[in-house]
């Protein structure tokens, strides 16, 4: 599965790049986050990151609101898989998205993901007798 800590991103960079690029980086982050969680959760039938972005654009953001709810569920599943305490923020993300505060949701989500990747990579290293 590789080094999971490499999936970490700076929360400030996600926010700043999303603002500076007028939302283009936000879509890149959305696709990347979706794909990382798909791989970690071994969800081979789920929607790809590129399709999430395309559907969000085509539906003028309506699918994006659904994505926020679903991505929180996927983070919760990943937290369970990693053996860490779960934190289901699906309703919070949905409310933030509805009122146009997706940027705040992205900061909270990236924080949760950074904690997940740290915990999962630490767990992987501790369970691997060949890890250095």
Automatic annotation (TrEMBL):
Source superkingdom: Bacteria
Entry keyword Transmembrane: yes
Chain ranges of the DUF4234 domain: 50-105
Alphabetized UniProt keyword annotations: Membrane, Transmembrane, Transmembrane helix
Transmembrane portions of the chain: 12-31, 51-69, 90-109
The name this protein goes by in its record: DUF4234 domain-containing protein
Organism: Culicoidibacter larvae
Upper taxonomic lineage: Bacteria, Bacillati, Bacillota, Culicoidibacteria, Culicoidibacterales
């Amino acid at each position: 599965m590789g080094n999971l800590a490499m999936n970490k991103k700076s929360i400030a960079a996600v926010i700043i790049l999303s603002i500076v690029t007028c939302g283009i980086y936000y879509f890149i982050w959305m696709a990347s986050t979706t794909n990382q969680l798909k791989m970690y959760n071994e969800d081979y039938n789920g929607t790809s990151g590129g399709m999430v972005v395309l559907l969000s654009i085509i539906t003028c953001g309506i699918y994006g609101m659904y994505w926020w709810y679903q991505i929180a569920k996927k983070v919760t599943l990943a937290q369970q898989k990693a053996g860490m305490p779960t934190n289901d923020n699906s309703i919070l993300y949905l409310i933030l998205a509805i009122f146009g505060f997706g940027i705040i949701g992205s900061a909270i989500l990236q924080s949760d993901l950074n904690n997940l990747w740290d915990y999962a990579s630490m767990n992987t290293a501790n369970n691997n007798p060949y890890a250095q």
